[in-house]
Structure formats: structure tokens, C-alpha cells
Amino acid sequence: MPEANARMVLQDSLLSRLSEALAAQMGLHFPKERWRDLERGIAAAARDFHLPDAEACARWLLSAAPARDQIEVLASHLTVGETYFFREPRSFEILEQQILPELIRSRRDGERRLRIWSAGCATGEEPYSIAMLLDRLIPDPGEWNVTLLATDINPRFLGKAAEGAYGAWSFRGTPDWIRERYFKTRRDGRFELDPRIRKRVTFSYLNLAEDAYPSLAGNTNAMDVILCRNVLMYFAAERAAKVADGLHRCLLDGGWLIVGPAETSHTLFSRFATVNFPGVVLYRKTAHAGPRPVFGQRVLPRQEPSPQAGVASPEPLVQNLPIPREPPRETIRAEEPGLDGRARSCANEGRLAEAAKWCEQAIAADKLNPARHYLLANIRREQGQNDAAAQSLQHALYLDPDFVLAHFALGNLRLSQGRRREAERHFENAQALLRSRPQDEILPEAEGLTAGRLGEIIASVRSILPRANKEQPA
Ligand SMILES: C[S@@+](CC[C@H](N)C(=O)[O-])C[C@H]1O[C@@H](n2cnc3c(N)ncnc32)[C@H](O)[C@@H]1O
Fold it and tell me: Could you tell me if the CB of 231 is within 6 A of ligand 1?
């Protein structure tokens, strides 16, 4: 690069303020050594914002907190989307040979459910790799209720991910048979993922630095495995610590967090137990390592981690990994009195049949309470009982036609059933209701989610609809 082009034009003080703001709003860390990248990204964003140059753009961004659509534009210029199928293969080997088989074994005779989240999924290669693993590990997928959620802050990446078509570069390091088995070569030379695998992943926008999780509305609660790889390395330390705490709360007891090899840290993941496998370090939430997430409720105040947390396993390899089961009942009662409170606690711990039972009792005690029908709908949804979930949501809406979250949930449900037109109608209803509310109003049953934020989430879901579902009848 010629010297003149390489010189930075923005003043240090401006770059410093900008990098602080971006760390707070998007988690992204731009230390001095990366200011040139920052400046390049801002210059590119200036064109999208129709501003004359990087300086005008930087000053404008600092004048007020950016709105969601501005964050999306910034994300498309400032994030690094480097990824490929089965990247860092050791993690996938451990998942395939140990973690997933053990989870599947332990759930086969009970509720057959699995919940996996790829947080910072970029263009989708990571969650689709998991979908391919599961395809081989679960021979009877119709009998299972598998959630494979994939989120990112960059809507362009999400659009590409939902399309499921990749160039050869996405397969570097991937065995040929994977491409032969799961992809079809298109005329333009790109490789198109088998729709059977593509449909198993749900993509959605989520800003790890700002959005609330665990969240019932965002479907980020009660996870068995979270992959958040090569994401936190770009985050400022303080923000990364908050994300680590949030991910901890999203996991069930015994759940796993997988980060990139360059991101392992006893300090950052001190709430987790460290499990050393040959060639890879994973983190696990143990029953004692911190407060459990609360389904449909605000998160409990932070407790200090117990001495068990964050202790490196003395054994280099854990063979048959036990998945910790039920916590003592007293804890549930002490934490969440009331029938619906019990239902939430059980759901939060993945004990869905029990949760449904408590919730039905709560409804029997107060049939006209829409929030209880909504809670039951979420439990049914997690059980894979979509028709029952839809019925409960309709019930909730009958009792309260302005129940925004129920419209949103029914929209999502119809979408997953391929009933696109109905989905659109519910999303429109929700958006119309949201428009009449103050943007900063916290919605009922929404774990702190504001009207403005839900409006943005719905807009984002709708914006990737045509590409995600193009073969489905409208
Ligand atoms: C290098 S990619 C990692 C992709 C994949 N996890 C992997 O390891 O191959 C980092 C991803 O993190 C996303 N990201 C950055 N900041 C984020 C934030 N605040 N919230 C959500 N995702 C974010 C970026 O958009 C990008 O897609």
C-alpha cells in the first residue's frame, strides 16, 4: 500500500473515543494497533451512510448512540467473518465422539431434545457443520426436537448463511466426502447445501454486546451446547466478561461452552469448569458454578463462583461424560414460589414434562391469565409439540389480543411450519402493536426486552425471509 494511503487521517483522540463507543455498543475492541482497520471500516461505512468522509462519519456516530440499522451497517464493515466448515476440527471431533453421543444417550429414553447455539455464526459454516454431525448421530431425527440456533450481528453474513451456498474456500480443511454427501454443485460453481440440512438451522440477528440473553423470546435459554468461537477475541475484556456470564446463564447445568483455541482463559471463564481434552480445552457449566438462568424471568443477582468452578480437570481426557441431572427440589421452591414459577424453573432446567404439568396446574388455577398460556406455548414448542403450542398462543391472544410477544411467537411458529403467509400476518400484527408503544417500554413477559428492540428483531426476521424460505409456497 502506498505511504500516502496508509497514513491515517482521523485524529488519535477521535479514534480513541470511537473505539470506546464501539466497545460498548458492539463489543468490538479496536486497540491502537488496529486503528487503521477501524479507519478503513469507518470510511467504507461513511459511503453507506451518505456522509462525505470518515471524519464526518466518526463525529456523527459519536453524536448519539447508533440505532440498530446503523449498527448493522457498522457490523458489515467492522466485523471479521473468517470461517469455514469444520474449522478447528478437534472441537468437532470431541463433539462428535463424546459430547453429542453422551447427550443423545442420556435423552433417548426421556424427552428427546437437544439445544445448540452458534453465537457469532458468521456465514453459517459452523452451525451447518453441527447440523451435518447431528445428521449422522441421530438416525431418527423425526423423533427428536433439535434446536440449532445461529446468531450474528452482521445481517449480510446472516443473509448468506440462510442462502446456504458456498465457494470452495469454505471447504478448506474439510474432507471431500462432506462436500460430496451434503452439497450439490451449482452452475455458477458454488456448492449448495442439501435443504434437509439447511432447514435444521435457524438464523437470527443477535448483538452479544447489547441484547438480553438468556431470553425466551430469542430462544437462547436452556442450551446444551454453545459455540462462541473466534468472537470474543475481538471484544474488549470487560464486555467479553459480560458475554461469558450471559452465556453461562443460557446453559443448562452440565452444558458446554466451546470457544476458539486463542480464546481460552481461566479468568474470563472462571464461572465454568475447565475440561481438558487432548488438543482442546472446553468449558462446562457445573451445577454449583453459579446461578441458574430463569425461564421467562429476570436473571437472578450474580453470586460469586464456588471454589469448584474453574478448576482444571486433573485428567487429560474425560471419557464417559456424565450429564448432571436434576437439582434438589428445595432449590426450585425457594427460588420460584408459585405454580408458574415452578413451571419456569423446570423448563429452565430442561425438565419439560414436569414444566408442562406445573403450567397446566397454573392455568387450571387461573384460566384467564394469558401469560400462563404463553408460558405453556413456549414449553410445548420446546417439546416439539407445535400444534399444542399454536393452540396455547391462540388462547393467549384470545384473552389478550394486544399480547405482542404471543403474536411474535406465533409468527415464528408458523414460519417454522412453512406457513409463511400466516407468519407474516402475525409479524405485522406485532409490529402494528409495537408502533403504538414507546420504544423504551419493557414488554410484559419479555425479560427486559423493549418495544423498540422487538420491533427491530421482527424487522430483521422479515428481512431474511425471502432468502431463507424461497422454495416454500408463500
Ligand atoms: C471470525 S467470525 C467467527 C465465525 C465462527 N464462529 C468460527 O469460529 O468460524 C466472528 C463473528 O462474530 C460476529 N460478531 C462480532 N461482534 C459481534 C456481536 N457484538 N454480536 C454478535 N456477533 C458478533 C461477527 O459478525 C463474525 O461473524
Answer: yes
